[in-house]
Design goal:
Blueprint: E1 11-15, H1 19-31, E2 35-39, H2 42-49, E3 56-60, H3 68-77, E4 86-90, H4 95-103, E5 108-111, H5 116-149, E6 153-158, E7 163-167, H6 169-175, H7 179-182, H8 191-195, H9 199-208, E8 210-219, E9 225-237, E10 240-249, H10 251-265, H11 275-292, E11 295-303, H12 306-313, H13 315-332, E12 338-343, E13 346-354, H14 357-371, E14 375-377, E15 380-382, E16 386-393, H15 400-416, E17 422-424, H16 431-443, E18 452-461, E19 468-482, E20 486-488, H17 490-499, H18 503-523, E21 530-535, H19 537-542, H20 545-556, E22 563-567, H21 569-572, H22 577-589, E23 592-598, H23 604-610, E24 615-618, H24 620-623, H25 630-645, E25 649-652, H26 658-666, E26 671-672, E27 681-682, H27 686-690, E28 694-695
Parallel strand pairs: 1-2, 1-3, 3-4, 4-5, 16-17, 19-21, 21-22, 22-23, 23-24, 24-25, 25-26
Antiparallel strand pairs: 6-7, 6-10, 8-9, 9-10, 11-13, 11-16, 12-13, 14-15, 18-19, 18-26, 18-27, 19-20, 19-28
Helix pairs in contact: 2-3, 12-13, 13-14, 16-17, 18-20, 20-22
């Protein structure tokens, strides 16, 4: 049986010099369950207060040593007794005496001779009032402490007259102001509030009851920048409309987001723009050249014999060489040029506003001259040649991908010609370009002819502590079985499908086939797993994707929870309400949504907050360099920490080594995908994978 703690009986001090009165009062009070203390005079009462704190005092007025009025005054002057309610007991009936009693600090008067029922009622009432006052005071103290010690700045406004009611010390620190002078000031007289709209803030709060501002930024008098998120809500207090504005410092979050964005757009080793940023800058340069009638040059650089240096002297020397190469590149470029590192020893320069090939050749020669002197790295003297391929907009291509392909073709020709030189792309070098066009023609009707097939790469759950993992999902990957050339790599024909606007019909076939295959595996009694299907921007926006998914599920009979749709970077860059509505409609059907290639785009962090995602996939570009590259390893660890905070699942792509697997397991990555366990397989090979676990280590 659980013991119930009873509240102690209220304690009452009775002060009267008449023993008969004391006896009567004590008898009745104790009969009603009160603890009673007595004092025969005012001085004795003052002494007793020091060691016995009563909840209520019944005080006679006429006493020989110290009258009740003076006794009450002295009680109210003491910190330990000023809040104890005092009820006077007096035979005095004149008004002046009662006024004196209340002026001395009494809360009530009872006339002698008194009716015991009346006295008991007054005692109960004032004890209840006292308890209510204590509870209210304790509540005020607690809330005031929370208010004053809050890590966020808190500002309280009176929405009826548009003035500041109160603010805590953190808010005062943020606003660089003293608190007392702020109280009572009009909103229009507070510079920060006036800068953010002044009276309009009050109007918005009165209209909606809650307003959120994602970012207010200002500078303190000492030059310190302040960046806060502000959430304001209204509430009623004594028939007035009040508003509490909470200022949350988001500088650390903004700095972290900026750092992740920087790392996502720049090469971790050299600090140069990476492929994502290069493609964006190149797109902008092409658009500008189209308006101005100028040309854009793309120079693709490859260091000659870099692999030999890396293999013989080690990666530290190789990395040091790459850093010095990037510095020399910056030294010969204009401000309008964009250098980038694509990976390994490949560098790219996007040069805007060129008059023609001569300008591009002059830039290439400056780069060759800059690379000619020996490099000194960790005590080694290194002589490194450079082969450069050059392509030009508009003659060699009208989009970044075409220019890169043309420059790559020219660069390999430069290597064949003896290295250490440059070569302009020309049509007589375009064997790759001709194959591109041939594949474009062959691709027409490939889906109808049954040349497309799906391969499935398994994803494994590795977040346990054991040495085994089971398949948790499959990624459906499109392959083209060419009638004469065999399997064509997706990197060759997927861009062709997009370029010719055929991704909608092909994507519809992929969805239907993947759903039907997953349903077939389940019908065989195999353990159910999700199948992930990539969506392109064309399919997402032009193909009525919601209807397409619903039809694929209905035709196959597959439950929605076993289908996952992977959203690509080109899709999520279009951050509009239309995108969000489509995603919400897909989620309402019960399918899963994941963000592919996380960390390689402009606004991936924003997607996590805005879009209804279930899972993210860490791009293979990050996985490739772990655990050896400290910067990349830190990015991966931070991404995994972020997914756990946001309650998202995570898959690491491109896991090929035991070292990568071990690092990901140490970082508590829940799922992995890569060649370490399995390459993409035909559907017929999947049942064997689903039938049992695999070992995580040799």
């Amino acid at each position: 049986m659980t013991a119930v703690l009873e509240s102690p009986a209220p304690r009452i001090l009775v002060v009267d010099d008449n023993p008969t009165n004391l006896g009567v009062l004590v008898s009745h009070l104790e009969r009603h369950g009160y603890e009673v203390l007595v004092a025969l005079g005012g001085l004795e009462a003052l002494d007793r207060i020091g060691f016995a704190r009563p909840d209520l005092i019944l005080l006679d007025v006429m006493m020989p040593d110290l009258d009740g009025f003076e006794t009450c005054r002295r009680l109210k002057a003491r910190d330990d007794s000023r809040h104890i309610p005092v009820i006077f007991m007096t035979a005095l009936t004149d008004v002046d005496s009662r006024v004196t009693a209340f002026a001395a600090g009494g809360v009530d008067c009872v006339s002698k001779p008194f009716q015991i029922e009346e006295l008991m009622a007054r005692v109960r009432t004032h004890l209840a009032l006292r308890q209510a006052q204590i509870a209210l005071h304790d509540s005020e103290v607690r809330h005031r402490r929370l208010f004053e010690t809050a890590g966020d700045g808190i500002l309280v406004l009176d929405c009826d007259d548009g003035t500041v009611v109160d603010l805590n010390s953190q808010c005062g620190h943020m606003l660089s102001c003293d608190i007392p002078p702020m109280r009572g000031r009009r909103v229009e007289d507070v510079p920060l509030l006036q800068a953010q709209g002044g009276r309009a803030i009050i109007d918005a709060l009165r209209r909606t009851g809650q307003v959120k501002w994602d970012e207010w930024t200002w500078e303190k008098p000492d030059g310190t920048a302040v960046c806060v998120e502000v959430v304001a809500t209204t509430y009623a207090a004594q028939d007035r409309l009040m508003a509490q504005c909470t200022f949350r410092d988001i500088r650390a979050r903004k700095d972290a987001e900026a750092r992740v964005r920087y790392l996502a757009l720049h090469d971790a080793l050299t600090g140069l723009p990476n492929r994502t940023l290069l493609m964006d800058r190149l797109t902008q340069a092409i658009a500008q050249a189209r308006r101005d009638g100028t040309q854009v040059g793309l120079l693709l650089l490859d260091l000659d014999h870099f692999k030999h240096i890396n293999d013989s002297l080690g990666h530290f020397v190789g990395d040091g060489l790459l850093e010095q190469v990037s510095k020399r590149l910056r030294g010969v470029l204009r401000e309008s040029d964009t250098p980038a590192r694509l990976g390994g020893d490949e560098f790219v320069i996007a040069a805007a506003q060129l008059a023609g090939p001569v300008d591009a050749e002059a830039l290439a020669q400056r780069v060759l001259d800059a690379m000619a002197p020996d490099f000194r790295v960790d005590g080694y003297t290194l002589s490194v040649g450079t082969s450069i391929g050059i392509s030009l907009y508009p003659s060699d291509g009208d989009n970044p991908a075409a220019l890169l392909q043309a420059a790559d073709t020219a660069m390999y020709q430069a290597k064949k010609k003896g290295r250490g030189t440059y070569r302009l792309f020309t049509r007589d070098l375009s064997m790759a370009a001709e194959r591109w066009h041939a594949l474009s023609n062959d691709l027409h009707g490939a889906c109808e002819r049954g040349e497309f097939v799906l391969h499935y790469q398994p994803q494994y759950r590795v977040d346990g502590t054991g040495d085994q993992a089971r398949v948790s999902g499959m990624e459906a990957l499109l392959r083209w079985r060419h009638p004469t050339e065999g399997l064509i790599e997706p990197a060759l024909f997927i861009p062709l499908l997009e370029e010719h606007g055929r991704m909608v019909e092909t994507g519809r076939w992929v969805l239907r086939t993947a759903c039907a295959q997953n349903a077939a595996w389940q019908a065989q009694g195999l353990p159910p797993v999700r199948v992930a299907v990539n969506l392109s921007a064309q399919q997402f926006y032009r193909g009525d994707i919601v209807r397409t998914v619903r039809e694929a599920l209905d035709e196959s009979g597959l439950a929605p929870e076993w289908l996952e749709l992977e959203l690509t970077e080109s899709l999520t860059l279009d951050d509009t309400e239309a995108t969000l509505q489509i995603m919400q409609a897909l989620k309402a059907m019960g399918v899963k949504l994941s963000l592919d290639d996380f960390g390689t785009g402009w606004s991936s962090l924003a997607y996590l907050k805005r879009f209804p995602l279930d899972r993210i996939k860490i791009d293979r570009a990050f996985v490739r360099d772990i655990p050896g590259d400290a910067s990349t390893a830190a990015i991966v660890r931070n991404i995994l920490d972020l997914t756990r905070l946001l309650n998202l699942d995570c898959v690491a792509e491109g896991v090929e080594t035991q070292a990568q697997l071990q690092y990901l397991r140490d970082c508590q990555c829940p799922e992995i995908q890569g060649f370490l366990f399995s390459r993409p397989l035909e559907a017929s090979a999947i049942p064997d994978l689903l039938s049992g676990p695999v070992r995580l280590a040799a």
